[in-house]
Amino acid sequence: MATNIDRVLYVRLPCNPIFPIGVVYLADHLHKLFPDIQQRIFDLGAIPPLDFNGALDECVDEFQPQLLVFSWRDIQIYAPVGGRGGNPLQNAFEFYYATNPFVKLRGALGGLRLAGSYYGELWRNQGLIRRGLKRARRYHPEARVVVGGGAVSVFYEQLGRSLPKGSIISVGEGEALLEKLLRGQEFQDERCYIVGETQPRERLIHETPAPIEKSACNYDYIASIWNQFNYYFLDQDFYLGVQTKRGCPHNCCYCVYTVIEGKQVRINPADEVVAEMRQLYRRGIRNFWFTDAQFIPARRYIQDAIELLQKILDSGMDDIHWAAYIRADNLNPQLCDLMVKTGMNYFEIGITSGSQELVRKMRMGYNLRVVLENCRDLKAAGFNDLVSVNYSFNVIDETYETIRQTIAYHRELEAIFGRDKVEPAIFFIGLQPHTHLEDYALEKEVLKPNYNPMSLMPWTARKLLWNPEPLGSFFGEVCLEAWQRNGNDFGREVMDILEERLGRADLEEALSAPMVDASPTPSKSLVTTSG
After folding, report:
1. What region holds the Radical SAM core domain (predicted)?
2. Which of 61, 304, 437, 446 is the least buried, fewest Cβ under 10 Å from its Cβ?
């Protein structure tokens, strides 16, 4: 069945200035399939807030789309760094744990500002979607709207209650859905549902994404349909996203990536990735961020990473830098050497805990001893730049002893790279839907089955900001002291205070864990460990 859709407008809803790689890849994919369809990208992230409505109206009036595709990236309730109206984590901890009434009041006022900003953004984005659709229907009464993006994929069930009737809510990747829409084909077998007409299938987010192999993005075409393209080229320190694969095979208990992107890892051909990078390189870009959930998700993908980095090295782009989120247990000396030679100058590892016992309980699949060995190889290869290590304290079965083990592990990373090169990023998990941690919280009756994961009410927020007792108050005190000492170096201060209060375990204790079922619950959802 043919469709009369020949004008598609992509609207990236307001968020931090992060390159909108999702809509760029969608537009590129559809152009390769439907070269005659007109497309436009409009990025509200590059527009001043007071101009959102007027700029959207002007864009719709000029382009007159028949299909609007809204990309909603962030509904980030909690964060360890500055965000809406200040530092959300600090506001929460001051309100929940401070003993000084003035500090508690400051936290409460900060929390109110945060809540006001949070709900304001929700209402604003919903209003922009309605506004854009209403405006488009002045020109095409049959105009439709698709809403997707990271935030929508996590909260797709809740957002369906507040978006316009007939909106198509897309979960995860949108290429196959949009392709069927433009072909006039039945599309509801994709990961989506229609507001007011259908209900999301049970476990919709867990369905397998379409196996699409990606080719190099055509940035000449993207520049022709995106008036704000050069906005992201003005700052030479800006890292532009390039995707080398999709999917994550792991089962980390708190992470939603593995369900959004699927467990099947789909590698983009190395030649296509390099061709895409070269297009950006010719436009002056020298900093790249590999946007994969994990740059090297498992050992069987080491050779793919080696092939890619070797081709980058052979391409002559010898003055670039790149960064990524990396599972450091999947490195080897050859890969370490290529990482340094190709310009890796920053990477993140999310070990969550420096205790092998807790890593196993959280289903992370890490061998912490191997991580240290590989970090030594990376240092030996000449890596002298920054590594950010993510720690999420108090997730499952944390004790004073496992904290001491984490301190020992962190000090060993500092011994390898240098204290000034290892940045501990201290997270407290914002519990999200569709994760094993949510199953655990429901089973333990921390949450009720009908809870609202988008609520910022204090009685819900305290449960979703995962810092349970008996150690919750202890971590609250430590974090408050760290902010008071030096809020600009919060992570290192937290580690120092923990060591002052608890001491440090022997490193061998951190690297050892009993080879028995360490699952915190008999539930099947948390028994099987990741390989």
Report:
1. 232-468
2. 61
